[in-house]
Design brief:
The protein is α/β, with parallel strands linked by helices. The chain has twelve helices and five strands. A hairpin with a 4-residue loop joins strand 3 and strand 4. Helix 3 crosses helix 4, helix 7 packs antiparallel against helix 8 and helix 7 crosses helix 9. The longest helix has 30 residues.
Length: 284
């Protein structure tokens, strides 16, 4: 991700690294901003791109380098000269993701971890980059985050909820259908907030009720045949109701408790219920 560069002064030589994505000559325009991350990596950026993505982008760090003689009285801070290093209080991996957001490009080639992506989203407001404006469907960062949904569904849903990224939360929620909500950590619930926590609970409840409705609906009757009379169909309906009641009692996505199902199957296989009727009806 970085290349080495040496800066010499009167007393020592300081070894710095240069980003392999944001270096002089990486883009058609000449860079006019130089960021240095907390781990001493240089990023050469264009103010035109930065302010095009968000007029207030990096206002906080520019103000930290503001010369009192150039006070803009509440306007945009004076931009430091290109050769001045603007210190960024984040690591190069996090800053790299944020800058890719500004340039509408993907940081996937650097293989950032989910933790890095999540940290970058959390840090975006610090740099006056609202995640709601930049993490939207079909953007590179949105797609990168969504790729982690199968492995980090709870963390990603909480991240989306915290920043009110509705589309990302909805896309991630399907991976939480089998999550036991009784074990939801308190800090994660607080990060989600009341609205998105309620939506998650409602999704589980609605899916559970829909599953019960499907299970508790017996097969429709059909005209009597030699192999399946009306009496056979009545027995089948009773057997179906018993077995489905056992299943629906504690049904959850991704969960099937065979210790609960076995008693129902045993009772349904007795002469009173005769599951052979089910086979005949299915084949008939």
């Amino acid at each position: 991700m970085t290349a080495q560069k040496s800066l010499e002064n009167d007393t020592e030589t300081v070894e710095l690294s240069v980003s392999t994505a944001f270096y002089p000559g990486a883009h058609a325009m000449e860079p006019d901003i130089t960021f240095i991350s907390s781990d001493r990596v240089l990023f050469y950026v264009h103010s035109q791109v930065s302010r095009g993505a968000s007029p207030q982008a990096f206002r906080r760090v520019f103000e930290a380098h503001q010369d009192p003689a150039h006070n803009t009285l509440g306007g945009l801070p004076h931009q430091p000269p290109p050769d001045e290093l603007i210190h960024i209080p984040d690591t190069s991996s996090v800053l790299n993701v944020i800058l890719h957001v500004l340039y509408c490009t993907s940081s996937a080639r650097n293989s950032p971890s989910f933790e890095t992506l999540a940290t970058a989203v959390d840090r975006m407001p610090y740099y006056d980059l609202p995640p709601r404006n930049h993490v939207t469907p079909h953007t590179p960062l949105y797609d990168q985050l969504l790729m982690h949904a199968p492995l980090f569904p709870l963390q990603l849903y909480a991240l989306a909820a915290y920043h009110d990224l509705r589309e990302l939360a909805v896309a991630t929620s399907s991976h939480l259908l089998s999550y036991p909500l009784a074990t939801l950590p308190e800090d994660v619930a607080q990060r989600m907030g009341a609205l998105y926590l309620k939506r998650l609970l409602a999704m589980h409840l609605e899916r559970f009720n829909a599953l019960k409705q499907i299970l508790l609906s017996p097969p429709l009757p059909h005209p009597a045949t030699i192999d399946c009379t009306f009496q056979d169909q009545k027995k089948l309906t009773r057997a179906w109701a018993l077995v489905s009641a056992y299943l629906a009692w504690d049904a959850r996505a991704g969960k099937l408790d065979w210790t609960t199902l076995f008693p129902a199957v045993f009772l349904a296989s007795t002469p009173l219920f005769n599951l052979a009727a089910l086979i005949r009806c299915r084949n008939g």
